[in-house]
Predict the structure.
Amino acid sequence: MRHRSRSPKLLGVAIAAVLGLGLGLPPALAAPAADPDPVPELVAGSDTAAPQLVTGLAERASGATPGEAARAHLAAHRDRYRVDPAQLVESGTEVAADGRRTVRFTQRHGGLPVFGAAYLVHLVGEGAGQRVESVGGKYFTGLTAPTVPSVPDEVLRRLALGEVEDPAARQGATAEDHGLVVLPGGTGRLARHFTVRGTGAAAEAGKAREVFLDATTGEVALGYEVRAPYPAGTPSASPAAGAVGATGAVEPATGTAPDALGHPVPVNIGRLPDGTYQLTDLTRPAVITTYDAQGGEEMDYSGSLPADARPAASPSPDFPASTGTSGATDAHLNAAAVDDFYRTRLGRAGIDGNNGPITSVVNVTSFGKPLENAYWDGRKMVYGGGSGTYHPFSAARDVAGHEMTHGVVKHTAQLVYAGQSGALDEAVADYFGNAIEVTSRGIPMTDPRAALLGESLCRTGTPESCAVRRLDDRRTTVADYVGAPAGVDNGGVHLNSTIVSGALWDIRRTLDPLTADRLVYRALAEYLTPLDGFVDARNAVLAAGRALGLGRAQLRTVAAAFDAHGIKEGWQRRIGVDSHPLLRELSTESIAPDAAAGRWVAATAGKGGKGSLGVYAGAVAGSAEPTRLSPEDGRSHGWPATDGTSAAWAAMGQGVNGQWGMEVFARPLDGGPARSVHSAANQYVGDVRISGGDVAFLADDFTTGRTGPVLSRGGAPAVAIPLPDGHSASDLALEDGLLAWTESWSSGGRTVSAPTVYSIAAGRVVAQYPVGDAAGTSETRASATRLAGGRLLWVETPEDPSLGSSIRSGALDGSGTALVLAGGTAEPRRITALTATDRAVTFGYAGGRVGGGVKNADLPKLWQLPLTGGTPERVSCNRGGQYAPVADRGTRVLWLDATAGRTDLVVRERAAGTC
């Protein structure tokens, strides 16, 4: 992952349960039972006075409809729930097979939706005999956020487009505006929600990013990646014209088709008026249709289907061999198997709960290459056609069931695809994907392959080596939780899923499988809400068990499964680390801290991650509370730097002139007023640096498109340092009268990057080391320019992924370079961060390919070696991701650590060595 100092990305509000709120509860809930029920009677909410869960109720509720009865119950017990019914909007009622109804409400603040807020009321009985059994969800009290934005819409849109990292992908990128929302946490934050899509191969086709920009400051308050969501207003993925005629001219029929292995199987098909046939199953309430993209580009099938798309067809009811090799036959059969499972076993009316069409597209490619993937894109299935390594991805029924379950999640709990809630989304999909396969194929739970996901995808190798995940891996929160921040796998949505799906699978192996399936489905459809975490899932499953009538012994079995996987209150506090914490639970891992002379500065949204960013300072040694340096003026303050005596930073938001813009401040660490160094209404400022009386930063001018260094000397007005036309700068460093940056320009159709040293006193460049041969076959780029020990340091990374990054240093007068750490092919590390003192160089890199594995070793770790070169040693043995290292002095390093499932600023005095 490439560390960015550009914009913060939060994973939303904290979701851990906080007990002990003073709630007006029924007497039956106040007294502890002699034989405690595993189902919690009360779970208090986090960051709200409204309870997360209240069970054990049996209270009459009157109303002509379930919604009216639920609203009346909440209104009659405002002292218990602390919920204002006027802020609730009914969003639907889930009716279970046994007639039990769950009414879902969403929350509004000032008429605007509150992101992820959902409150649920569970009722049994009919008419005057209706009773409320339980209530819960997330309703946020104390919201006072404004409802009118102060940042212009066009500025917010431009900032949203800036979240597309690759400049080539940013050309032609789109930002779909979904309007204003209120993000919960503290008093709340007014945000504008965009779905941002890049263009070109570098944008990773089929992916998009949900971006929420604070509408009062412009900072990114929340961001996470999603797979090919449909734009608003896009037609549903129903069959294209001519597939299923509007007049019903297509008639149901049966035929045969070969599967991916060439075995003929019976299929339900449709007969067209011209006597030809297509893969359309009309025998069930939800029409199933399967299309063959015939190697078409993935992006052409993202959104609505192409106008000329047609289902896989045949002149006779016996479909040709290509129907199997493309994966169409398996996609068609697996869609039916998934529909049958949810319909007959769980009583669900199709994927969307309303018998909507179930559409699959097979045999797509990605920019001319095989797509080794499958996914639910929001309304339909998309499958890669396989490769020499993999069968068509539709061939694995557990994969099909997994991906289509994402569609069920979307139409029930709507789990936010980031952090713990995103891992829950994956976990539920893991569970049902495997449950669908073993049930439909008659595989016993005792079969050692029953717990494998995707084991049948590979053309070679064993099922165990092929499986992308296994639900019996025995992973626990304390021993195995992958501390990934928002920028890595959306906070670990895949990396942590089997902690929960493993617990659910243990329940299925212990209880009757049908009971377990109904239990997990009821928890999903009737108890889980968008921002729920692991402990919330435990409570939801237990509450669903009580609603299903499970006995106390069975409920204890369910609780024991969660216990065995470490899913219990306070599990994050049990993860050990070898570093010393300086500031806990920062709201972002994307803004680097800084340190010098035993002092540190960092940006966070304050205690609990509430509100806009502020800049805080503290001592590396000592226990004093951090001091806030930045004013509380409604703006977002971040991008901090320090020289050990003073600090500098940038603020984003509505300035004193009433316009949105950015302002650079400087202030002594030991007190005194903050002074304005620079202010501009149409610039983006980053890479702030300070040394003595000098303050430097990079300014991206929205009007001219110029990105370059700006310098203020001794409090004088900031002045831009001119660069040659077509040149840009990044990776700013400032020390003892010298300014350094990485300068880039195009030469001969290739990019040249050059670590550069500028003498402030002389007013000119005194050293420049161009990297990369314009005539070469593989481009190499420089990055992470630093000044330390009287040398200029930087990282060189070849474009060829088989070659590793190297670290070099150069003389400050341009007289030559030295190799600090060699690259090469033996260990092709891709260095993402660099910092140094006069004694040591510290760098960060990921040890593996993040996304397909489950190891903390795959996340970025920090390594250290002498400034003159040598053998790198691990800085810390912490298991989670380690980001944004900053050297203080000697071998002391501070960094942002994600081991405990949150972002902490931590420090070590020296390298740990071998872990």
